[in-house]
Amino acid sequence: MTLNGWRRLAVGGAWLCTLVGVATLSLLPETNPAVGCVPPEWADLAHVPAYALLTMLTILVAATRVRMSRGILVMILLLLSLFGGVIEILQTFTGRTASVLDVAWNSAGVALAAWSHRAWTTGRAADTEKPVAKSAPLPRLARVAARGRGECK
Question: CA-to-CA distance for 101 and 47, rounded, in angstroms?
Answer without folding.
Answer: 10
